[in-house]
């Protein structure tokens, strides 16, 4: 299979090698087209966003105003903060020039003259690599005003890197825009959507790094070629990052629709010690987990995973073997979302904290089975009631982990409550425990 | 004496400012530069950033306290960041964290008395394929074991 994003060409991160392998031919071709033609090709290719939501990229571009009255912006999202996701880093390291070529084509399609690449602050070394690649392309006249001569066109764009500073929420597109504007990373209420009202109130498009890196190959080889790879409704390849209990963790570029079991056993080398799999999170920690005994036949594309009761997310596959304590995993996930909640919406700010507290109570051996119901209830009350999807991302793992692994979680909780103190029986009406389950100390019995 | 940016850093901030249509947008770059020069972001650094960018102090402080990579107290020369998020946890992230704690005799977000090391339990750093991992300042070290981590700590002078 031909690889689109990370081809097996040595030293592809060097500009000369990239050009020798057909680099910047797609940009030349696209810059001679009308922006609407470029958008049309990407639309027909059915390229979908690789950042989690899986929205159609061409359609997203087409939302930008056709007549330019204000500056247009393109933001490239390389925040990559989803636990279990580590794919964009490979692109910065191994194929930065294809990303830059994709940016030129995308910027032309939406007529954006300023492009910001948002990269998480921890990726300082990769920021340096990409900045070096950008500088090289400026020198060669692939970016900036010199583009006009190089590509014989009227269009030019400038590309800047904006370094994040360790906030998960800034991977959310509107929080990302606030962060670029120099504000705290609070997500914005939509509508208005970024295509109307984005950076500094101007039309803006936000695309994932991997999404943009696909674009040059689509222009060079045609949309028919791209649409024929992988699953028809979600074509192309994906960078699957496999981590956790596998023999060969790493990033594997495979066509969409590849079997999940194929990725785990054939590419990632199976589970150490040939243990059984208890649980798999297929798309980064926000996505609903799948039971290990129900992985047969699940294909890795947006629609198949939705049918299987999860989502493709960022394609970060976390594998947990049969000896994993799922309670510990869920406590860790809940702690993460509690820590990363920006604090803007009450259900998320408070709910994530309560979920963590209840889970820690269970962890300390003080939980009852009512706590499991309470957790599902709290999660359901966060879901869909917040400005951005972090609320959902915090709720899903809790809700689905407990409902899908109820048998496992029941092991960690008690059914009965012992009230050791006399004369406290009247206070029971304020508790959530049902009276039948209360075991009174012998001495208080009538 | 109050904190002042060096000539060179003023130029770097000016360059960052050129990237954006507003000077507020350069605040994160300025915070990084301030943190680099001063070691951490004190009230005086906040004031200086606000003065240089001509923005209210509250805007600077809001950003400094929101993002976890800006430190409002002095951290060690080597800031050891250990990831304990799920992928690292499954492969022994907590054992690494405990080993570092024991070796340095400090807890999360504390600094050793000689000011050489500080420790932070961090969220996913995007190196799940090389789990468990640690980062020392900006450098990633992947596929860690207890022994390797202790070796790295010994090698830092």
In short:
In chain A, 40% of the residues lie in helices and 13% in strands. Chain A is an alpha/beta fold. In chain B, a hairpin with a 2-residue loop joins β3 (134-136) and β4 (139-141).
> What gap, in angstroms, lies between the N and C termini of chain A?
77 Å
The secondary-structure class of chain A comes to alpha/beta
What CATH architecture of the largest domain in chain A would you give?
Answer: 3-Layer(aba) Sandwich
Strand order of the biggest β-sheet of chain B: 2-1-3-4
Number of domains of chain B: 2
Mean pLDDT of chain A: 93
Strand content of chain B: 5-15%
Instruction: Give the total of domains of chain A.
Output: 3
Q: How would a textbook summarize the main sheet of chain B?
A: 4 strands, mixed
State the fourth-level CATH superfamily of the largest domain in chain A: NADH-ubiquinone oxidoreductase 51kDa subunit
């Amino acid at each position: 299979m031909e690889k689109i994003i990370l081809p097996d060409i040595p030293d592809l991160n060097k500009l000369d090698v990239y050009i020798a392998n057909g680099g910047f031919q797609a940009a030349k071709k696209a810059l001679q087209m009308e922006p609407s033609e470029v958008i049309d090709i990407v639309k027909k290719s059915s390229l979908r966003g690789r950042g989690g939501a899986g929205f159609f990229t061409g359609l997203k571009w087409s939302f930008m105003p056709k007549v330019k009255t204000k500056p247009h912006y393109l933001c490239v999202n390389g925040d990559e903060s989803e636990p279990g996701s580590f794919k964009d880093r490979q692109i910065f390291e191994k194929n930065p020039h294809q990303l830059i070529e994709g940016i030129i084509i995308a910027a032309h399609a939406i007529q954006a003259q300023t492009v910001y690449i948002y990269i998480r602050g921890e990726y300082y070394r990769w920021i340096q690599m990409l900045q070096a690649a950008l500088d090289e392309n400026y020198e060669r006249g692939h970016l900036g005003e010199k583009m006009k001569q190089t590509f014989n066109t009227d269009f030019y764009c400038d590309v800047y890197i904006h370094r994040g500073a360790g906030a998960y929420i800034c991977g959310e597109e509107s929080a990302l825009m606030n962060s670029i504007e120099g504000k705290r990373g609070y997500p914005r209420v939509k509508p208005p959507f970024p295509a109307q009202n984005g950076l500094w109130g101007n039309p803006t498009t936000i695309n994932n790094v991997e999404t943009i890196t696909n674009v040059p190959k689509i222009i060079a080889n045609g949309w028919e070629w791209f649409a024929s790879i992988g699953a028809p409704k979600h074509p192309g390849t994906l960078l699957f990052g496999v981590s956790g209990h596998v023999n060969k963790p790493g990033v594997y570029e495979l066509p969409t629709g590849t079997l999940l079991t194929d990725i785990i056993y054939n590419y990632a080398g199976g589970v150490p010690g040939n243990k059984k799999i208890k649980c798999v999170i297929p798309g980064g920690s926000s996505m609903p987990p799948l039971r290990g005994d129900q992985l047969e036949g699940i294909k890795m594309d947006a629609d198949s995973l939705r049918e299987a009761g999860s989502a493709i997310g960022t394609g970060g596959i976390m594998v947990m073997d049969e000896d994993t304590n799922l309670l510990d995993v869920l406590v860790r996930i809940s702690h993460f979302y509690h820590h990363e909640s920006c604090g803007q919406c009450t259900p998320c700010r408070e709910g994530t904290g309560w979920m963590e507290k209840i889970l820690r109570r269970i962890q300390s051996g003080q939980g009852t089975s009512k706590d499991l119901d309470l957790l599902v209830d709290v999660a359901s009350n966060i879901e869909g009631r917040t400005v951005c999807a972090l609320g959902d991302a915090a709720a899903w793992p809790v809700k689905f982990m407990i409902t899908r692994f109820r048998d496992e979680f029941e092991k960690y909780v008690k059914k009965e409550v012992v009230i050791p103190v006399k004369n406290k029986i009247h206070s029971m009406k304020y508790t959530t425990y049902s009276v039948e389950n209360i075991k009174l100390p012998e001495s208080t019995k009538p | 004496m109050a904190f002042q940016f060096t000539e060179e850093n003023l130029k770097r901030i000016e360059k960052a400012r050129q990237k954006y249509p507003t000077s507020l947008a350069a605040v994160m770059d300025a915070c990084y530069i301030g943190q680099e020069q001063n070691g951490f972001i004190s009230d005086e650094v906040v004031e200086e950033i606000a003065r240089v960018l001509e923005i209210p102090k509250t805007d600077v402080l809001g950003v400094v306290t929101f993002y976890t990579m800006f430190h409002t107290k002095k951290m060690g020369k080597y800031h050891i960041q250990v990831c304990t998020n799920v992928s690292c946890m499954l492969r022994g992230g907590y054992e690494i964290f405990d080993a570092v704690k024991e070796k340095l005799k400090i807890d999360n977000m504390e600094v050793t008395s000689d000011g050489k090391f500080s420790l932070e339990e961090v969220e996913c750093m995007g190196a799940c394929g090389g789990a468990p991992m640690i980062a020392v300042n900006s450098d990633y070290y992947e596929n860690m074991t207890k022994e390797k981590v202790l070796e790295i700590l010994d090698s830092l002078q």
